Amino acid sequence: MTIKLGADAFTIAVAIYALAAILYVAYLINKQKAMADAGRGVLIAGFLVHSAALVIRGLALGRVPFLNMYEYMISCVWGAVVVYLGVEIFTKNRSFGAFAVPLITAGAFMAARLPYQLVDIMPALRSAWRVPHIASAVLAYGAFAVAFVMAIMYLLAVKSEGEKGSFWASRLPSAKFTDQAIYRVIAFGFLMQTVLILVGAIWAQMSWGRYWGWDPKETWSLITWLIYAAYLHTRTVMGWRGRNSVLMALFGFLAVIFTLFGVNFLGGLHAYSSVMK
């Protein structure tokens, strides 16, 4: 097995995700259950190929593929698929797929365009703590991405409620239903983000002799955690619902994007994730 084989498998997964996205959008337009069933089946097929690509790369490298930006991105996309499928199963609503799966496909396409070649890694990264640290990040950011598209759906649902013959009103779940679903997804993502920070602090202590060093990635991971903590606090303690909570969820995802990409231009101990080849 070679890393190129894994990269080729992931490229195939991207094409399958694109087909799934088309089917989910078609379902949203025409509301034919067969389209939703096909979309879900194709998405699962893409997920299986994607999982195989990760396994192939891991076997070729002799380690879990969680180190450079290519590996981080393909893993985050994988996490987003896991979270979305969980949302679809528990909510029994496939309209979410018309928004979530295109975003997943876009992320997969971006990842596929990154160089997949190997990079040298610092000794501190050769640690067993890397696996739970990055795994929790993959699930956290995947959950926040799904919550982001659900927040957009909420705003569309609110805008169209009460409008007779509205396209969105007849196709999207109710604003109240979507608001509750967003809360549950963010609560899961927040739990994973908490694990990410705690495990990272322990790893930092073992590798560099300190739990926290205000590295740019550390700082923005904390900022992201605080934003979603504020979302959960204002909702559960202050009783916020609807638009105010949703806007905070959207703002939180902007912090996620900067944490994933923007901080790589600031240097620091986590700058290895920006290596492109």
State the helicity in percent bands.
Answer: over 70%
**Could you report the average pLDDT, rounded to the nearest whole number?**
87
Rg is 19 Å
User: Helix/strand-derived class?
Assistant: mainly alpha
Question: What is the H-and-E element order?
Answer: HHHHHHHH
Record field, number of beta strands: 0
Task: Walk me through what this model shows.
This protein starts with a helix and ends in a 17-residue tail after the last helix. The chain has 2 domains: 1-119; 122-277, no CATH class. With 277 residues, it is mainly alpha-helical. It has helices spanning 3-30, 33-61, 69-91, 97-112, 130-160, 175-208, 216-236, 243-260. Helix content is 72%, strand content 0%. Helix 1 packs antiparallel against helix 2, helix 3 (69-91) packs antiparallel against helix 4 and helix 5 (130-160) packs antiparallel against helix 6. It is flat, with a radius of gyration of 19 Å. The model has no long low-confidence stretch (mean pLDDT 87). It is built from 8 helices and no strands.
